[in-house]
């Protein structure tokens, strides 16, 4: 194992970070955007216009792609996982994180809204709103204070430059 310069902390090997991230992907987003919507709807489709179904499929496809990409950034750039029990050793600010600070939460909400449209099940829209509110509270009350404590001024500069929920039009240049 390599040691980071100056800190004496061992870096998490990428394989271990990848396994941890994959497990967290199944446990957290898998339950929130998979198991619970299935329990609510049994994946039963109600009538919905074709345009809504297509929009739902697009939201699901985009949500899956962005979610997997965001998880990969934690392994490659952060050398850790998105799970609070195995956080990244480096602040993840590249790729999609140059546009928005919380792409995983947005992707999960996109998956749920996409399922609502695809299945024609408005109850999932209410569920998506509740999950979105929970994500907002978790970010403000738990995640941001932890990131401030772990990454200090680097996180503060990133927080000031990149919005939480509405992506920037142009990527942040990454200057801390």
What does this structure look like?
- With 176 residues, this protein is an all-alpha fold.
- The protein has helices at residues 14-41, 50-76, 103-119, 123-161.
- It has one domain.
- Helix content is 63%, strand content 0%.
- Helix 1 runs parallel beside helix 3, helix 1 runs antiparallel to helix 4 and helix 3 runs antiparallel to helix 4 (123-161).
- The chain is globular.
- 29% of the residues are buried.
- Residues 1-8 have low confidence and may be disordered.
Strand % is under 5%
Mean pLDDT: 91
How many domains comprise the coordinates? 1
Extended strand count: 0
The helical percent reads 55-70%
Which regions contain 5 or more consecutive residues with pLDDT less than 50? 1-8
| Tally of separate helices | 4
Quick gist of this model?
Helices cover 63% and strands 0% of the residues. It is built from four helices and no strands. 29% of the residues are buried.
Descriptive key words:
4 helices, globular, disordered N terminus
Helix and strand topology:
Elements: H1 14-41, H2 50-76, H3 103-119, H4 123-161
Helix pairs in contact: 1-2, 1-3, 1-4, 2-3, 3-4
